[in-house]
Design brief:
alpha/beta; five-stranded mixed beta sheet; four-stranded mixed beta sheet; 24 strands; 31% helix; binds ligand EPZ; 14 helices; 429 residues
Length: 429
């Protein structure tokens, strides 16, 4: 288990580049199942979740290899297995993205039912209702979802909630269905647009991706396609928060302003200086952060994946802020850890009431999900003294490409702790 030690108080200055989007690359990797030929995907972040998805594709019989740390080549054709390996799929929820493509390509798929995780039960009922609407027979057996359909038939589908994964799974399945499919109340995230544009380049007929109504006309076959994945908007937002909290001025290169407008609006409200510059975003930390109220929403609303990082920032702002989490049922675990660092936060149902404090103090903290891990790391940048973060493979490196190295390159004092013995609690005076 790897751990890092953050020594707070260092301002961040300089330039840093954003990696490709984890949440765009994962469904696009799954979508290669639908194609025939060689797909070359570039700007793919070099992350554990990505290598897990690549191992799933290999287990299904696709040939997949890295030709560069950020370039993946995937050969797809018709001889493909129908059963995804239990131990791999249950490692990463996003592996469930393979069920739509596998069903559409082969008429049968047997995929482990994803478990819940720290942030919620994470059901897949909306995914399965969508596949049923396309004519699939759905069974649950011994922890597996089994879906069958001789030939999927297009239909009009109204999603109960604009679920990102369900929109992606149904859209992928509909590309090879007979006739037209309309997905109403579709999610509108930029990652869905990126997936749609990759599929269109592979020969799919899709209109309206990025709006609440996506229309797909089925085709017989998709060719392979080369694709450059969009920049990771959540990494960009996380780096913006890091600069705003630590102090200093940072240029975040390669970030797409349009993808994180809601985050930028809230950071400006909190007093952070933000401007577009060339192909990036320049962030200037204010002398004093100001309180702001936030409610997480599906895109284009404020992203739930930025909620933890903003709570960290608002814990140091003047005044009282209210942050309401409306997408996941249990995404405040990092709050208890922030309170151990001196934050003044009260939880009331799905809202966190944050009273700003002048300072945080470093402490050993535990993350429970990826964005909480990042939120505690950036808290440590400002906290007085040392903050120890354990298990960073699971809670930071799984979803951020070299985040600690990027922050170090900007001046942060972050080092890996080879063993816990190095981390001496202050001896009692
Ligand atoms: C995607 O997860 C992202 N993951 C998440 O990012 C992100 O937080 C989430 O979208 C919301 O933006 C990937 O893209 C790999 P949802 P997904 O389906 O698709 C409920 C990160 O840190 N729901 O939009 O699983 C669900 O329980 C991760 O990178 C159902 O009830 O999210 C949740 O409360 C975390 N039934 C809400 O909808 C379903 O069938 C939103 O989930 C599906 C979802």
């Amino acid at each position: 288990m790897r751990r890092i030690l953050v020594n707070g108080g260092k301002k961040l200055n300089g330039e840093v580049s954003v990696s490709g989007s984890k949440n765009a690359a994962l469904p696009i990797l799954a979508a290669t199942i639908l194609t025939n030929g060689l797909n070359t995907l570039t700007s793919v972040p070099n992350l554990l979740d990505i290598t897990t998805m690549i191992r799933v594709l290999r287990a299904l019989g696709l040939r997949a290899e890295y030709s560069h740390p950020n370039t993946v080549r995937i050969w797809a054709n018709h001889n493909i297995k129908h059963v995804a390996p239990y131990e791999l799929v249950t490692k990463m929820r996003a592996s469930f993205f393979i069920i739509g493509p596998l069903l559409a390509k082969t008429g049968f798929a047997k995929v482990p039912l994803p478990g819940g995780c720290a942030i919620g039960s994470r059901p897949v009922n909306i995914h399965l209702k969508g596949l049923e609407a396309l004519g699939a027979k759905v069974e649950l057996e011994h922890g597996f979802v089994i879906v069958k359909a001789k030939k999927l038939k297009g239909d009009r589908i109204l999603l109960d909630f604009p679920s990102v994964g369900a929109t992606e799974n149904v859209m992928m399945a509909a590309t090879l269905a007979e006739g037209d499919t309309t997905i109403e109340n579709a999610a509108r995230e930029p990652e869905i647009v990126d997936l749609a544009e990759y599929l269109i380049k592979a020969g799919a007929l899709i209109n309206g991706a990025g709006t609440e109504t996506v229309q797909i006309t089925g085709v017989n076959r998709l060719q392979a396609a080369d694709w450059k994945v969009i920049p990771d908007r959540i990494e960009a937002g996380t780096l913006m928060c890091a600069a705003a909290i630590a102090g200093g001025e940072v240029l975040i290169k390669g970030a797409n302003l349009q993808h994180i407008e809601a985050t930028i609006i809230k950071l400006k409200e909190a007093g952070v200086g933000i401007g577009e510059e060339g192909n990036g975003i320049r962030v200037k930390a204010p002398a004093k952060l100001k309180a702001a109220d936030i409610k997480t929403q599906p895109f284009p609303g404020f992203p739930t994946d930025m909620q933890s990082q903003l709570i960290t920032l608002l814990s140091l702002a003047e005044g009282t802020s209210v942050v309401t989490e409306s997408v996941f049922e249990n995404r405040f675990m990092h709050v208890h850890e922030l309170k151990r660092m001196g934050a003044d936060i009260r939880l009331e149902g799905q809202s966190a009431i944050i009273t700003g404090v002048p300072k945080l103090s470093g402490a050993p903290v535990k993350a429970r999900d990826l964005r909480a891990g990042a939120a505690l790391l950036i808290a440590g940048l400002r906290a007085e003294g040392e903050t120890l973060i354990e298990d960073i493979e699971r809670y930071i490196e799984r979803g951020y490409e070299g985040l600690d190295a990027k922050l170090r390159s900007l001046g942060a004092d972050i080092r890996e702790l080879k063993n816990i013995a190095e981390y001496e609690e202050e001896p009692d005076q």
